[in-house]
Amino acid sequence: MMRNTDAQVLFTPGPLNTSATVKSAMLDDIGSRTTASSELTSRICSKLLDAYAIGDAFAAIPVQGSGTFAVEAMLTSCLPATDYCIGVLVNGEYSKRMLEICEIYGLHHVPLQCDTETAIDPARVDAFLLEHPQISHLALVHFETGLGVLNDLAQLASVCERRSVQLLLDAISTFGALPIPFDSPALAAVALSANKCLHSVPGIAFVIARKAALQPSVRRSLSLDLNAQWRKLENGHQWRFTPPTHVLLAFDQALDEWAREGKAERRLDKYQQLNRHLVRRLAEQGIVPLLDAHHRAPMITTFLLPETFALSFEQLYRHLEAAQLIIYPSTYSTARSFRIGCIGELVRADIDRLADALRNVTSSSQLIEPAAHA
Ligand SMILES: *Cc1c(COP(=O)(O)O)cnc(C)c1O
After folding, report:
1. Measured from the CA of 68, which atom of ligand 1 is nearest?
2. Is the pTM of this model over 0.85?
3. Residues of the chain with confidence (pLDDT) below 50
4. 262-367 adopts what CATH topology?
């Protein structure tokens, strides 16, 4: 077992369980202006570009922080000062967050509210773009992690190509596991995090941006300015502000492990195997996925608690936490539901532990207190 066995098992969409070797890679202090540090940053950026065989037209630009920092950096750094309009496709929590970013910065935008339990219909997006010819860019979340809805990226990218619209993509929960069409001329920028399918520790995110899409004359933010960050790294390999050196060391190791284990294809395959086992084990107890199989992806699944289930979500959470098993509620507010992530260094035995703990819930004597939110 590569993970510390006494640790909590995280069935959450980040932070997630990391390998012992990724954690131990952090046991080194390196100065931010040293050769070792600048080589580390440029090595990581090259590995990210190589991961999807991305050509020279793109640059990988690091951002200190979690995935949201990269999304905010992407939306504020890749739009011109004037004569643009961004269409925001909203079908879950993370695309709502993109909308909030647009509102905070006063970016010209038009939302398209879509159903949150199904993938976005490409024909509807095509009609939306025809109806709003001022839209120059489209903001899309590849996999909506709140409920676990996978949008059809290939189809949506071809709609963008057909309508000459540039795509700004949140691929935070898919980069490292699913294909991303970097060969599409519509793709302008992609936000990703070290702490999702690439299995590293939290603290760093990236935008892989088409160099031509970066706006040197537009400054909407100081610390999230991708163009300034990229120029500084290009001319002398220095970060503008304190780099998360330990986090970079961990990520360098995580990228090596990702490549050694067979890259995106193998990682997706592993998630699928874990997820199939999970769905099967929970179905035995009447706990079934909320969404139809063809709208899901194995990284995160939302499950519904059956009517007969004895506990509220809060009680269930505490019961599982006591067994070192950590889950999150789903963002689906009208039902008793929870989501289970199959990402991170998980094994089949972890899924069995979770399924067994769920089965033991009703027989546990400590849990006779009435359900608070039944
Ligand atoms: C995790 C995630 C983010 C980033 O969320 P943070 O809370 O900043 O880590 C953004 N988009 C998607 C689709 C995600 O899954």
Report:
1. 8
2. yes
3. 1, 365-374
4. Aspartate Aminotransferase, domain 1 (3.90.1150)
